Amino acid sequence: MALQGISVVELSGLAPGPFCAMVLADFGARVVRVDRPGSRYDVSRLGRGKRSLVLDLKQPRGAAVLRRLCERSDVLLEPFRRGVMEKLQLGPEILQRENPRLIYARLSGFGQSGSFSRLAGHDINYLALSGVLSKIGRSGENPYAPLNLLADFAGGGLMCALGIIMALFDRTRTGKGQVIDANMVEGAAYLSSFLWKTQKSSLWEAPRGQNMLDGGAPFYTTYRTADGEFMAVGAIEPQFYELLIKGLGELILLKIQQETVSCQARQTLLSVKQWPSLQPKSWGFVWL
């Protein structure tokens, strides 16, 4: 396993931190999760491959045990807002003085600097501030609050795991640890680099929900089927679109007024102005 021999101390928190530590454990790291007194179980259900112990970090004895753990560990992962660890006398200045090779990973919502750094939040708040939320949703409707995957897990947990891996690699050359400031706002914004880099292209020239990749195109969206379920259609390329038309047969042929599957018919269907009229609310077939 790639991370065999790497030891990680995870301070328990909500989903992003446990997911980050689980990724490290999945690839061979020895992860010890430090739970708070009174914790009965792993709320996030992401404890695979970890061991755990209970420490009261607000008490000198508990803080001392954590410091001893960090003296012989490679990574500390903490999920708190700015200033919490420093208040407990467990900040990076202290722990890295005792173990210069320690990688001190801080995973928070808004980061360790700025006016939001001491505030609490959730996935939807981080997505809104990153700008990504403004791009998700149907035309004429409010932006959708998606599952808490984009900011919490992708922009937070996974990006933090990547930072830890890069810090471990850098340590092989420098012999020193470092502080990682991973946060879900900047992580989600970074994940959406393609979106912002192509903002002025034809991909996103229409309002939300009216573009090719956000549900505006009849060949790249979802439909309810006759059995009450749903199907996803993603037939952007000409050859795949032609297969879709042929596969649906008479149903779609009626929709395009019995036109043959030709280049001319496809160009008609790809006309942006005609997309709304080509999206029935449901298609009368069963998706098997």
UniProtKB/TrEMBL annotation:
GO MF annotations in UniProt: alpha-methylacyl-CoA racemase activity
InterPro entries: CoA-transferase_III, CoA-Trfase_fam_III, CoA-Trfase_III_dom3_sf, CoA-Trfase_III_dom_1_sf
SUPFAM superfamilies in UniProt: CoA-transferase family III (CaiB/BaiF) (SSF89796)
Gene3D superfamilies referenced in this protein's UniProt entry, alphabetically: 6.10.140.330, Crotonobetainyl-coa:carnitine coa-transferase, domain 1, formyl-coa transferase, domain 3
GO CC field: mitochondrion
Gene Ontology annotations of biological process type: bile acid metabolic process
Family of the protein in this entry: Belongs to the CoA-transferase III family.
PANTHER family reported for this sequence: ALPHA-METHYLACYL-COA RACEMASE, SUCCINYL-COA--D-CITRAMALATE COA-TRANSFERASE
Name of protein: Alpha-methylacyl-CoA racemase
Origin species: Pongo abelii (Sumatran orangutan)
